[in-house]
Amino acid sequence: MFAAFSALSVRGRGAARLAAATLVSGLVAASAMAGAGTATAADGRTQSQGGAAATIGGLKTYGAAVVHADSGDQEISAGLFEMSVDGGGTLQTYCVDIHNPTQRDARYHETPWSGTSLGANKDAGKIRWILQHSYPQVNDLAALAAEAGVKGALTEQDAASGTQVAIWRYSDGVKVDALDPQAEQLADYLEKNARGAAEPRASLTLDPPAVSGHPGERIGPVTVHTDADSVTVTPPADASTSGVRIVDKDGKAVTSAADGGQVFFEVPEDAANGQAELTVQASTTVPVGRAFAAESRSQTQILAGSSESTVSATASATWAKSGAIPALSATENCAENGVDITAANEGDEPFTFELLGAEYTIAAGESRTVTVPLQEDQAYDFTIRGPGGFEKRFAGVLDCKTQAAEADEAGTVTQTLSEPTPATVGTTSDDTNLAATGGSGMTPLIAGIAIGLVLIGGTALVVLRKKEAPARD
């Protein structure tokens, strides 16, 4: 019986990153637990805290912009992307990492600002203000032009490119101008008048996303946080055979819930040690200003508009008759440049594990968070195993900084080109190349070297701390 992290893989943006080591954490845990449990397969999903999941399509409404750098000027496209939401719905987004290409058909999920470069950006609130006071939230272009003092007619293309340019000035700190005079006037107005605005709450999350307890108990609560009127609650897939029910605090079966509602896993007293998962889903408009992070190396997006869209979240429960009973969840933490793995023990015995030669104990009823530091742009794939065949997997890519910020920290100059560098190969579309909103001259070099990259093992330092009360989105 043990807990372990699998090896991490590394992906970098620059040639120096190609020599970065793979971080390997030797997290090994031992725990005594009565009774044999059924092995639970890893969920295999990229870590997400719930909300909307979508696939990026193309740059739909755009104009031209020019990025000014010491190495020269680069003309790029600037404007609105469109995403297709899983389960139905459409999102409109702007990008917040100008020099990082967007991969066609990349998968994205709704993410708190703390899991993106916006978390450390003191001007993130101004970006949200721009989104709230410009196109497409303000779709009366004549009124927008009058408010901004734009001389001449303002087209949708002007409005989209001017808005994107203003966002880039705050998200990336770059010198960038819209090519069209009307678009440039709008960008200047938005930049000058932007004020701080609070981060919007998530469209849908469950807190906590993992709970644990004993058979015969109501395990939870799991609290629903949503801006939807209500959510549907789907019980575990094997509920009819396992006897596990989703109920309220009084034991009444739950099929729907509202914001602030609490649900529990009711596990039969004679149930064997095991695990189950519930899903909640709703249809709502995602709040403007929500960040969307990619599951691969693709530039972070920020929401500008949403149709009625499907949002969902999951929560898991683990139970055992006795011994340590772990509940595991993970979040990306850009303040600490890593991923927080939270282990809660609702069992009746301590949960003891060894980490890099040191032994730690999570007492019964206690919760601690292990912070695994990662390099920027590093892909991670954690598989954590525990007593009785318990297994949980978390995967993703740490994307906490814009490429411009990384270049500044390294004391280097970001490469720019007179033509954008394609981010995809072998695709044709009427859309503007997605890499047109960014692209480094190093991209072909990275692709070539990466084929023969040999990963070098390394060791990750890990910080343990008491879990703080989770902040609500």
Short description:
Helices cover 14% and strands 36% of the residues. It is mostly beta strands and 473 residues long. Strand 19 and strand 20 (338-345) form a beta hairpin.
Fold topology:
Blueprint: E1 22-24, E2 27-30, E3 53-69, E4 72-85, E5 90-95, E6 107-111, H1 124-132, H2 141-148, H3 156-171, E7 175-178, H4 181-193, E8 204-207, E9 210-213, E10 218-226, E11 231-234, H5 239-242, E12 245-247, E13 256-257, E14 262-266, E15 274-284, E16 291-294, E17 301-306, E18 309-319, E19 326-333, E20 338-345, E21 351-355, E22 358-362, E23 367-373, E24 379-385, E25 391-397, H6 403-410, H7 443-451, E26 457-459, E27 463-466
Parallel strand pairs: 1-26, 9-18
Antiparallel strand pairs: 2-21, 3-4, 3-6, 3-7, 4-5, 5-17, 6-16, 8-10, 10-14, 11-13, 11-15, 12-14, 15-18, 16-17, 19-20, 20-23, 21-22, 23-27, 24-25
Helix pairs in contact: 1-3, 3-4
Oligomer: single chain
Q: What structural class do you assign from the helix and strand content?
A: mainly beta
Mean pLDDT: 78
Shape: elongated
Largest sheet, strands/sense/barrel: 6 strands, antiparallel, barrel
The proportion of strand residues reads: 35-45%
Distance from N terminus to C terminus (CA atoms, Å) equals 36 Å
Which residues sit in consecutive blocks of at least 5 with pLDDT less than 50?
A: 1-46, 411-436, 438-473
How would you characterize this protein structure?
The chain is elongated. It is 14% helix and 36% strand. The N terminus and C terminus are likely disordered. It has a six-stranded antiparallel β-barrel. With 473 residues, it is mainly beta. The longest helix has 16 residues.
